[in-house]
Amino acid sequence: MGITKTQIFDKRQNELAQLFKILGHPARIAILQHISTQNSCICNDLVEEIGLAQATISQHLKELKSIGLLKGEIEGKSMCYCIDLDRWNELQEFLNSFFNTTKHNCC
Amino acid sequence: MGITKTQIFDKRQNELAQLFKILGHPARIAILQHISTQNSCICNDLVEEIGLAQATISQHLKELKSIGLLKGEIEGKSMCYCIDLDRWNELQEFLNSFFNTTKHNCC
DNA sequence: TCTTATTATCGTAATATTGCGATATATAAA
DNA sequence: TTTATATATCGCAATATTACGATAATAAGA
Lengths: 107, 107
Fold this sequence. Notes:
Two copies of one chain form a homodimer.
Chain A: H1 11-23, H2 26-37, H3 43-50, H4 54-66, E1 70-75, E2 78-83, H5 85-101
Antiparallel strand pairs in A: 1-2
Chain A binds a DNA duplex (30 and 30 nucleotides) through helix 3 and helix 4.
């Protein structure tokens, strides 16, 4: 046991859960906020500003990339991680559609 | 290691992450959908419809209650779990405010 | 080419989550 | 009161996540 039984849920349920799950870590929230509002998209800057080890930040960046939220570009000898705004809006709509279609009660 | 370093993040970041995290499991998504769109709010019905053990469903219900999304009321000898619509809307706005304030790129 | 700087990946330890059987608790009905 | 039904909690095993040091890979500049 301990393994999530994804096979008993449908595609949309698993997708929604996966998106929520990846957003469900404060370091990843902080990364997104830094990139967006602090004008900091260089991996090394994030390491210093957030205060986790470089390997850890790199791992979190990888997960955010896995759902398409971030795209990384080589900037000299650094990596510039930027938010994919199209994907960002797509996800926001997807999550909102979940919230809106689940807004009714049975009693 | 292995423990999330919540102390280096601020209250809002931890709150957001906690909400996303709890929504980040397909069983909990399914529970919310069943309650809302299948008119099924009795714990035992959910057990049968979702196909996880009763103990497991009970645990997931507890987590959804922990962020205020569900409230349970005694209905005869069963429990009726309903979505707290005020809290639901509050969360939707909270998540949208995160999405909207993080919608800019540094480059 | 050699060195330096930056990021990714590997391996591993600590902790958290998931799932379930067993059991406790609570309520309704007999 | 006794029995049946429904839910919560406990304890545990399996798996996943988090974090980091060490190291590999890559690119710029001396």
